[in-house]
Amino acid sequence: MKTEQVGDALFETWTVDEVETALNNHEIVLIDVRTPQEYMFEHVEGALLMPMAFFKADALPGQTDKRIVFHCGSGVRSEKVSRAAIEAGMARVAHMEGGFGAWKGAKKPYIGTNMSTGAPHRVA
């Protein structure tokens, strides 16, 4: 995990392995900031959707029970959202390095779309 001090806040960049471990251990809430269309086509199972276009830092839950980690397709949008959350007063913010592309590249499981039926299915 990489960390950066931004004023009084701590900005963290997590690897896909760190995110997978924390997600499997129920230690984080993974928030996908991609578009609804991107999310519907394929997403990390268990990730919540809060598109960057509708992002409101004050709508986020506190982080007393679980940490919040943002992700997008490549890491660019999730970094922007993370920095916006810091500007809104969050003291500790994290995002996943490389986004969903890195997740798939590391052969992590996700929910995809069966192109012959249009139904969601697990991709291992």
Automatic annotation (TrEMBL):
It comes from Thetidibacter halocola. This is Rhodanese-like domain-containing protein. It holds the Pfam family Rhodanese. Residues 24-112 form the Rhodanese domain. It comes from the Bacteria. PROSITE patterns: RHODANESE_3. CDD domains: RHOD (cd00158). Coiled coil: none annotated. GO terms for molecular function: thiosulfate-cyanide sulfurtransferase activity.
